[in-house]
Every structure is written in structure tokens, then in C-alpha cells.
Amino acid sequence: MKQTENNKVEIMDTTLRDGEQTSGVSFGSHEKLAIARLLINELGVNRLEIASARVSEGEFEAVKQVVRWAEKNGCLSKLEVLGFVDGDVSLQWIQNAGCRVVNLLCKGSYKHVTEQLRKTPGEHITDIKEVVENAQNRGMEVNVYLEDWSNGMLHSPEYVFQLMDSLKELPIRRFMLPDTLGILNPGNTYEYCRKMVERYPDQHFDFHAHNDYDLAVANVYSAVRAGIHGIHTTVNGLGERAGNAPLSSVLAVLHDQLGVATTIYEEKLNRVSKLVETYSGVHIPPNKPIIGEYVFTQCAGVHADGDSKNNLYCNDLLPERFGRTREYALGKTSGKANIRKNLEALGIELDEESMRKVTERIIELGDKKEMVTPEDLPYIISDVLRHDQMNNKIKILNYSLSLAQGLRPIAALKIEIDGEAYEESATGDGQYDAFVRALRKIYRSLGRPFPMLTNYSVSIPPGGRTDAFVQTIISWKHEGEEFKTRGLDADQTEAAIKATLKMLNKIENQANASLEALQNK
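Now predict its structure.
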């Protein structure tokens, strides 16, 4: 298997170009810059395709902003822009934006040349040569996309070889082989890539997969086995239709299944994925490999038990590799081992009888389809065992919420902290917002830090019952730690207030525990 120098495969990420073709996704210039910086500086991708030429004035300004940053940081050569066979027009656009590498979009199938361009292969080749010559005169580097290459190899391989034979002696750095319509499978991906590598051993080939048959990562595996030198990815698998090959899964396959090295720092993957999720508005499925919320969560009690006995249910995809931690779900399939794992994380020990009672309660909650989180565990223990194991030093004594048409909601709050009562009121954009603003006023007056609310979600059990409970789950960030708290009530605002009270006591107990640890040293 022929690879690049030091047996490394290049990663060219096209989140900012091809990934932006996801329906409804459009990155602002500051967002493009933030993603580019993370991908290059922290994650360590080799190359970055950041835009298409001639799209818009806004795209032009975005490219200029990313280029300015890259020039200052010595990585301008890593930036690439898609250009077209249009004489000098795309090249001028790209050069004026400050970029020096053009990824030239040529036609890789006979049907695309004759039916879309309505030209002969010879005419198209002449046009390509003109652009390559113009780029060389401008001092620009050229890579060539063979658009619809997969259909070209399937239906008109003689055209593909005619095109390659005509271009192979030109100053083209890389030939990029896209499965534009996502039609390939692992078998013919290997066959077609191997033909290219063997027929043109002196050329550098990239493979660009699409996921229409959910085979993009499998096809990447076959392409690299066939000797392909570079792989195109997008963060979170963004891209047109079913998307592109997701960077996270590609890296896991390259590193673990093929033993191939890359320049990527795996531990940074989760951070980049979350940022792109925020900017794109496209949520990561919770069961998506490597980056999904639940993929490092064991649910069955037998799995937690096995993990306690020499990690019997762990594979090479250890969460710590990717900046994650393993979790053990609490629900109707939980056993004592799951609960023990969560208790260990909280520093809580229970005897066997107490464990039995807590397990029964969690299974009962799971049967009712209620969500049980590790943050809830101390409260469940307190309820089941009839004593307060989580010393609630913060209590809400009273509150009043008012909502009137044409007026901003008002909240009045009375809270007890360490036996002292405090009162405050505030207006807000909603009743809960007003409540939090009043709470922040109290904390500010006491010089206490208040966590940042990062996400707020509400779920109502199906069935349409008017008396259904509302589950409010709030994500917080406090002193570098991210965690969630949950409230359950018939009223959404009260459920949110209960979740907020859990948060306050959680950070209070953590602060007290840290103080005791320091005093005992």
C-alpha cells in the first residue's frame, strides 16, 4: 500500500466549502475564521478548502479575512479555494482574495463533458490547460478535481484515462477523485482507486467521498487501502444531500483499522465538532460515532460490571482519546454496577441494602420513561434513604412570577443561603429569564460566581395529556466544567426553577468539598 511520506495520509477538510452546501448552512466571516483557526492550529489538518470562487461579495470578504490570519501565522499554503474552468476569471477572484491554491473543478465523466458543457473531450482539455497555464503565470498552485469521477470510471473509463494522460505532465500538484453522487461501494472504490494509482504511480491522488448510501467512511477505508494519498472530510459529516465523510469517523478508521498515521490531534475533535454544531445549527445525532452524546455511555448493568473487571466491554475507541469521558446511564436496564460507577464519580458509598433500594427506584423511574441523570442520583438517594446526603445549603423560600399583556414579566425571589435570607426582583424576556436575573442580582451582591447557561431544552411525554409532567434540562458551564441539571414539574417554568436550584446546590457542595480538601492537607 503506497502512502505519503512517513506513511501518513493527508487530510483536506472542506467543511467551509463543501460542508457549507448543507441545506440551510451559511457561515459568517467570523465563523469561518474561528473554524479555520481550530482546524489548522488545534486539530492539525493538512489543508483547508475554505470557499468557492465567484460566489458572492460576502464570501470574498470572508476569504480575505481567513487569508489575513493565515499569512500572519505562516499557514497560507494550507488554504485552498474551488475554482472553475473559466479562463482567468476564477483565478483573478482567488488571487485578489489573497489565496494561492486553486482546486480546479474539471469534468471527470464523459456525460458531464458532452451533456453539461456540450463540448468534446479535446475542447475541455484545451480549456483546462489554459487555466493551468494562467495559474502558473500568476504563481498559483493547482489541484484538479475530476468531478463525477466515480461515474466516469463506471461508464467511461477511457475518457478518464484520456483526461489524465493529457494532464499528467502539467504542473498539477494533486488529482482529486470525487464520488460526486455517492454511488460507490467499498468494492469498486478499491478497484477504481487502484487502477488510478497503478496507472499513474507518480501522481498524488485524493479521494472525496459522499454519503448517499451511508458508505462514505467505508469507501475511504477502501481508497486508502488502494494507495490513495489524501482524504477529504467535513466536520460532523456536513455536506450536500447525505453529507460527506465525517472527519471524526475517518480518523478513527485510519488510525485503528488501517494503522495509518495523520497529523490530527484526536483529543481536539470534540471541541471542533461542538463549535461547528453551534455555528451550522445542524445537531449531531446522539448516537453518531466518536462525537455523539451517547456513544461513550454504557446502559446495560452487565457492561458496567465488565468494565470494573479489566474493561471487558471497552474497545480501542477510548473516550479519553477524543476529549470525552465514559458515562454509565441510569434507567430501567441499569444494574448495581452502573449505579456504583456513577456513585464513584460523585464520591458516594452505599451499603448493599441501600444499593438495592436505589436500584429499584431508578428502574421504576426508567419504566415510566423518565430521564435519570448522574446529577439526579444524590437526590434519588436522599429520597429513597430518607436522609439528606446532599446538604442543601441553598433553598428557595418564596417566589412570585407575573405575566401581563404588553408588560415585561416580573419575578420576585426570596432565597436562603447558609441560613441567611435574601430578596430581589427583576424583569426579563420571560418568566424564567426574570427569575434568573433576580437570582443573579443576589449572587452579584454577595460576590459569588454564577454559572453560564449554555443550553435549555424541554420535553413532554407523548400522548397529549394536559396534566403531563414537563422535563426541563439545562446545561451549565462553571469554572471550566460543563454539566446538566434536570427539573420535573407540571409547569415548565417551575421545572426550570427546580433544575436551577439543583445547579446552585451542586456548585455549592463542590466548593465546600474543595475547601475541606485544602484544609485537610
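The two ends are 57 Å apart (CA to CA).
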